[in-house]
Design goal:
- The protein is of the alpha/beta class and 531 residues long.
- It is built from 12 helices and 28 strands.
- Helix 7 (224-240) packs across helix 8.
Length: 531
């Protein structure tokens, strides 16, 4: 059965009635504690500990896809439209290192007049895209490292986001500089004014990883103070044309290199600039990380250290209440680890990151990438959803923006990682207000974990969403939900995520097998915080 716009499905009707019947009859007692470790789970059901946003889990498409002619990525296909709708609401961030090489040709001038030249027809797996009347070969041009983006290409990106219900945030080129070193926004104004004239709603970023410009572009370094002034100029311009909503930045790659991030935040005291603070996070390099790193407590705990550092920086800059995003993030930088970042085991890094950042009140986490590289949600060679896509789908459907506190959830070194949110209640959902969803990650590859809830849950029914690799190997590129393989229906429709209903026996537990992750909905929690 296909996924609908609001995530509703015929197959879930009557779930609450079934839960009631099973609770009364105690027809079965699945997942009786047989593992090696019992983990008490103490949740504060009375207070919202943190808040995210409806679009918390968001995605990216790398700006380099422009120079690659979007080869293999058909944003007009029914498959990609259905995938995008399944991830809405959220943000699609279009940016990356390549954004600082892009010139915008929104006036319809000949490409040679915008310092460029046309290239050949793009290909999809070696096949000509002539069936599109060479549309894609008109969409971009390059000369040297410079890329020229046309109106048609801009429309192609925007039309996808507006069709699927994602908000577009676009990274502007900050390397266009005047003689005095300030940002020259002449070309950016051309893009912004064209966008406004079409009635499009777009948000903006300025520059990508400016703390690494000397490495990424080879250009002269832009100081943190200068970039803050540039953001101020952009924000004032956007306000002057009544086109200001979200301006995000500075999209730094590091927290401490040259004190860039700290100096940028300090400079905002004198320069009104971004209203969303963004930084990028990866656990390590795609060249050096190996399989064990992906479920290492030591590696996963690095994120908490970074979150604490950013929180301290914001506090020191009197910005402790600022809206904060992970503007670009995934497992490993450099495109990920082939065969690992695109496999089941990568889900531990991704879900733990969502769990932790939610506790710090982050509003958006932009996953690098929706498509492209070894860390994408969709395999760019086969256009098949990877395990992290289905994990993201479950998170979207089951975890609301209200975050609850779980005792010990910030303890370093833990191998059983549990997070709790109020359950997301979609229109027509069988779950009701007061329900709670647990996200449980067992990163131990030998030991089962038994989650022991409060005694009031004895003899109650839990909706289980247990994810495991289809071939039992952690690097499997396909996934099972409650032992049922997940895949697109007719190669285009997103499948329904069906829970398994399990009863918690007296003094019983919920089992999470070794190296698996799961979501558990507690429909009888009656959490005050979730009413």
């Amino acid at each position: 059965m296909a996924f609908s716009r609001h995530g509703q499905r015929e197959g879930r009707r009557g779930v609450l009635f079934t839960i009631f019947i099973i609770s009364m009859m105690l027809a079965f007692t699945a997942n009786v504690a047989t593992g090696d470790v019992t983990v008490p789970v103490a949740i504060d059901y009375d207070r919202v500990a943190a808040r995210t946003s409806e679009g918390f889990l968001s995605v990216t498409i790398d700006a380099s896809e422009i120079s690659r002619n979007f080869s293999g990525l058909d944003l007009q296909s029914e498959k990609m439209i259905n995938i995008g709708k399944a991830l809405a609401p959220g943000v699609l961030r279009f940016g990356g290192n390549a954004q600082d090489y892009i010139t915008y040709n929104m006036l319809g001038h000949a490409v040679d007049d915008v310092t460029g030249h046309m290239t050949g027809v793009g290909t999809e797996h070696g096949r000509s895209r002539a069936r599109d009347n060479n549309r894609m070969d008109r969409l971009y041009s390059t000369v040297g490292e410079e890329t020229v983006m046309s109106r048609e290409q801009w429309d192609y990106i925007y039309n996808y986001t507006s069709t699927v219900g994602l908000s577009l945030i676009f990274g502007l080129n900050s390397q266009k500089r005047s003689k005095d070193g300030s940002w020259n926004m002449t070309n950016a104004r051309q893009l912004i004014e064209y966008t406004k004239s079409r009635g499009c709603k777009v948000n903006w970023e300025l520059g990508n990883e400016p703390d690494l410009y000397d490495k990424h572009t080879g250009e002269a370094v832009v100081s943190a103070h200068q970039l803050a002034r540039d953001f101020h100029a952009l924000s004032q311009y956007l306000k002057s044309i009544a086109f200001f909503d979200v301006l995000a930045g500075p999209d730094v790659a590091t927290r401490s290199r040259g004190h860039f991030f700290e100096e940028f935040l300090d400079s905002l005291k004198e320069n009104e600039g971004p209203n969303a603070i963004t930084w990028h996070q990866y656990y390590g390099s795609g060249r050096t990380f190996t399989l064990p790193d992906f479920h290492s407590a030591k590696i996963l705990d690095k994120l908490k250290t970074e979150l604490d550092l950013v929180q301290l920086m914001l506090s020191n800059a009197d910005m402790r209440h600022a809206e904060v995003w992970l503007g670009e993030t995934s497992s490993c930088y450099g495109g990920g680890v082939p065969g690992v970042s695109d496999s089941f085991v990568a889900g531990f890094m991704w879900l733990d990151k969502l769990g932790l950042t939610a506790l710090y009140n982050y509003t958006h986490i932009c996953r690098q990438t929706l498509w492209g590289g070894s860390y994408s949600l969709i395999d760019s060679k086969t256009n098949t959803p990877l395990p992290d896509f289905y994990a993201s789908l479950a998170y979207k459907q089951l975890m609301s923006d209200k975050v609850l506190s779980v005792e010990g959830q910030l303890t370093m070194g833990r191998t059983m990682r549990v997070y709790a949110h109020c359950t997301r209640i979609l229109p027509g959902s069988e779950y009701k207000a007061g329900s709670v969803t647990l996200m449980a990650l067992n990163i131990d590859n030998t030991t089962s974990a038994q989650l022991r809830l409060a005694s009031r849950f004895d003899h109650t029914v839990v909706a289980q969403y247990l994810f495991q690799p289809t071939d039992t190997t952690p690097t499997c590129k396909s996934v099972m939900l409650n032992r049922n393989p997940l895949s697109l229906i007719n190669d285009k429709d997103v499948p329904e995520l069906r829970p398994k209903l399990v009863v918690i026996p007296t003094e019983g537990t919920i089992q999470v097998p070794p190296l698996t992750y799961a979501f558990f909905v507690l429909p009888t929690a009656n959490a005050t915080a979730c009413m």
